[in-house]
Task: inverse folding
C-alpha cells in the first residue's frame, strides 16, 4: 500500500504540471552520435532540483566510455572496479527518465544507469543494448564425432576473434575474452542443451583450436562429447573478476523505484541489481537477446539484496540470461571477533559483496550460528563503523550474557522485503527460475517457469554466496512449470533447503516456515515435484503433474522428498501419464505428515 501510494503521488505531480520536462534535444543531445558527455553534464546541472522529467525524442543514442563519469563502485554480486557511468542519477527526488521508445546503445565497459540515494525514481520506455554483446557465441556448423571435433561459426559483431598459442581470444571494444565460464545451448529449443555438462568447453590433453577464416574455427577435443550441429556455445569470461563488470541498471540506497516498459538486450552482468532499496516495482521489464544473438545478459535478469518494503515483479519476460531469473535475499556476514563493549568485528563473507552496506543504526540484526545456520539472538545496531570494503565494526544495544562458542554470523532482519511475482514468463536460462530467501510475505502467482535447474529455490546459504533468509510466509500458486531441470534431469519445481558444507549440520529448530505450493500445473519429464529439508509448515496441494516427452523420461529422484520436516500436508495432487512408480520419500525425523486424496502416487 505504501509503495502504491508513493507511485500515485508521483503520477499526480507529473500529470498536473508540477514536473519540469526537459527535452534533451534542447541541450544538444540527439540520436546518431556519442552523447555521453552531454548527458553527464545535463544531469550534473540538475543537482538539487526536484520533479524533473528527462525526455528523449525517439531515436538511437550512442554512449562511449571515453567521456563518461568515472568512479570506483562497489556493486554487490558483481566485480568492484572503476566504472564509467552513462546516467549517474544520484540524490534526486521525483526524477523520471523517459526514453519515449528510444534505444540507448552502449560501447565497451560502461554502466548505463545508476540510481543512488534517490527517492521516487521512474525509469521507463527505453531499450538498453551494446554494440558488442558481453557473451561470446560459437555456433556448431559441422562436427566429426570420430575425432571429437567441430567447426564453429564465431559471432563477429564487428570485432572478430583471434587464435594465439592454441587459445581462442574474442575481441571486444578494447579487451579480449578467453574461454571462461560457458554453457551449450540447443539451437532448436533456444534453451540450455540436455545434459549440458557433456558439452563444457575446457582445455585439456589433445585440445587443438585452428582459425579457418574470419568467421570460423575448428575445435578438437575441447568437449567431453561432440556437440550436435546447431549447438550454440555461450562463453562469458573468467570468474571471479572477469565477467560481471557492467550491469545494465544499478539501484542502491533508494526509495520508491518504478521501472516500466524497459528492454535489456545485453549486459556485462545483471540486467538489474538493487541493494538496500525500499520499494521496487518492475512492470513490463524485458530481458531477451537481440534478434541476431542467442543469449542476453551475462548474469541474473533481476537481483535484490538487502531490500525492504515491497518488491513487485509483474508482466515481465525474462529469458536466455546466463544465470537466474529472479534472486531475492539478504546477506550473512562473518563475526570475526567479539571486541567487548557490545562491539563485534565483522567481515563481509563473499568477495562480490565487499563494499556492501550491511547495517545502519536502528537496524535489527540476528546473531546466527554458522554451524547450523539457525538464529541465536536478536540485537539492535547503535553504530556500524566501516573500516574498509571487507570489514566493519558493529556495536549493538545488548548482547547475550554469554557469547556463544563456535563460528558466528550476522544477518539483517530489518531489510527483508515482501515480494509479489505476478504474470511473468521466465524461461530458457542457465540456472534457476527464481531464488527466494526473504522473511517478508511472498506471493508467486500466474507465472510461467522453465529453467535448466530448479524452478523455485528457497535456500539460505552460509557457505558459498552467503545469501541469508529463512522464509516465513510464501505462497506459490496457479503457476505453470514446464520441463524443470532439463540441464541435468534431476531438478525440482520446488526445492526448499538450507545449503550445508561438510562442517555444518542441521540444528534443533527448523530453518524455513510456512511454504504453500498449490494449484500449479507441471509438465514434467522426470515426475519430480518438491524437495524439502528443515521446513515446518509445508503444503503441497492441488497440483497437476503431467508427463512430458520433450526430454528423456524417467525418475532419478523421488517425486516428493522430505527430510527433517514438520507439519506437512500433501493432498489432492494428480500425476498423469507416468509409466514408473511415483514415490514420496520421508526421513524418520519428519513428523506430523498428512497424505490424502492424491492420484497416481505409489503406495
Result:
Amino acid at each position: 500500500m505504501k509503495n502504491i501510494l508513493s507511485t500515485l503521488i508521483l503520477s499526480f505531480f507529473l500529470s498536473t504540471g508540477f514536473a519540469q520536462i526537459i527535452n534533451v534535444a534542447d541541450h544538444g543531445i540527439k540520436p546518431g552520435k556519442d552523447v555521453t558527455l552531454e548527458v553527464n553534464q545535463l544531469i550534473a546541472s540538475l543537482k538539487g532540483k526536484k520533479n524533473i522529467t528527462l525526455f528523449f525524442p525517439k531515436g538511437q543514442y550512442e554512449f562511449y566510455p571515453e567521456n563518461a563519469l568515472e568512479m570506483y563502485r562497489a556493486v554487490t554480486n558483481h566485480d568492484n572496479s572503476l566504472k564509467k557511468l552513462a546516467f549517474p542519477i544520484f540524490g534526486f527526488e521525483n526524477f523520471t527518465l523517459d526514453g519515449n521508445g528510444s534505444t540507448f546503445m552502449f560501447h565497451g565497459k560502461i554502466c548505463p544507469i545508476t540510481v543512488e540515494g534517490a527517492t521516487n525514481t521512474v525509469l521507463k520506455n527505453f531499450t538498453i543494448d551494446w554494440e558488442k554483446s558481453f557473451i561470446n557465441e560459437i555456433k556448431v556448423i559441422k562436427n566429426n564425432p570420430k575425432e571429437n571435433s567441430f567447426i564453429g561459426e564465431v559471432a563477429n559483431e564487428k570485432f572478430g576473434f583471434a587464435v594465439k598459442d592454441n587459445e581462442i581470444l574474442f575481441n571486444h571494444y578494447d579487451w579480449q575474452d578467453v574461454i571462461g565460464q560457458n554453457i551449450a545451448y540447443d539451437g532448436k529449443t533456444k534453451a540450455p542443451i540436455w545434459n549440458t555438462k557433456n558439452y563444457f568447453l575446457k582445455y585439456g590433453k589433445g585440445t587443438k583450436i585452428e582459425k579457418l577464416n574470419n568467421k570460423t574455427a575448428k575445435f578438437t577435443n575441447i568437449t567431453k562429447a561432440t556437440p550436435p550441429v546447431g549447438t550454440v556455445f555461450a562463453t562469458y569470461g573468467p570468474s571471479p573478476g572477469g565477467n560481471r563488470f557492467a550491469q545494465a541498471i544499478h539501484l542502491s540506497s533508494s526509495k520508491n523505484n518504478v521501472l516500466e516498459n524497459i528492454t535489456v538486450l545485453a549486459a556485462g552482468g545483471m540486467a538489474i541489481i538493487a541493494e538496500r532499496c525500499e520499494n521496487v516495482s518492475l512492470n513490463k521489464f524485458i530481458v531477451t537477446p537481440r534478434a541476431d544473438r542467442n543469449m542476453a545478459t551475462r548474469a541474473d535478469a533481476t537481483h535484490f539484496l538487502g531490500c525492504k518494503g515491497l518488491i513487485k515483479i509483474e508482466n515481465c519476460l525474462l529469458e536466455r540470461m546466463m544465470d537466474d531469473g529472479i534472486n531475492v535475499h539478504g546477506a550473512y556476514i562473518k563475526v570475526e571477533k567479539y571486541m567487548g563493549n557490545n562491539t563485534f568485528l565483522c567481515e563481509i563473507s563473499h568477495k562480490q559483496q565487499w563494499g556492501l552496506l550491511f547495517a545502519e543504526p536502528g537496524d535489527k540484526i540476528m546473531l546466527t550460528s554458522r554451524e547450523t545456520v539457525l538464529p541465536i539472538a536478536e540485537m539492535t545496531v547503535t553504530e556500524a563503523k566501516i573500516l574498509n570494503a571487507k570489514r566493519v565494526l558493529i556495536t549493538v544495544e545488548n548482547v547475550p550474557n554469554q557469547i556463544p562458542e563456535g563460528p558466528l554470523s550476522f544477518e539483517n532482519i530489518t531489510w527483508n522485503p515482501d515480494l509479489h511475482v505476478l504474470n511473468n514468463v521466465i524461461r530458457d536460462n542457465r540456472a534457476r527460475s527464481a531464488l527466494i530467501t526473504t522473511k517478508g510475505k511472498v506471493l508467486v502467482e500466474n507465472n510461467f517457469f522453465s529453467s535448466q535447474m530448479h524452478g523455485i529455490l528457497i535456500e539460505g546459504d552460509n557457505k558459498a554466496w552467503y545469501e541469508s533468509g529463512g522464509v516465513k510466509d510464501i505462497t506459490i500458486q496457479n503457476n505453470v512449470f514446464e520441463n524443470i531441470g532439463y540441464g541435468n534431469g534431476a531438478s525440482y519445481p520446488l526445492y526448499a533447503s538450507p545449503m550445508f558444507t561438510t562442517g555444518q549440520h542441521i540444528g534443533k529448530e527448523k530453518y524455513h516456515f510456512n511454504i504453500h505450493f498449490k494449484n500449479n500445473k507441471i509438465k514434467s519429464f522426470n515426475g519430480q515435484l518438491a524437495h524439502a529439508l528443515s521446513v515446518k509448515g509445508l503444503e503441497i496441494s492441488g497440483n497437476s503433474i503431467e508427463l512430458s516427452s520433450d526430454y528423456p523420461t524417467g525418475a532419478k529422484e523421488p517425486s516428493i522428498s522430505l527430510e527433517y520436516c514438520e507439519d506437512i500436508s500433501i493432498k489432492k495432487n494428480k500425476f498423469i501419464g507416468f509409466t514408473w512408480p511415483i514415490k514420496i520419500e520421508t526421513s524418520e525425523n519428519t513428523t506430523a505428515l498428512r497424505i490424502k486424496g492424491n492420484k497416481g502416487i505409489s503406495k
Summary: The chain has four domains: 2-129+242-323, 136-235, 330-412, 418-596. The CA atoms of residues 364 and 380 lie 4 Å apart. Helices lie at 2-15, 36-45.
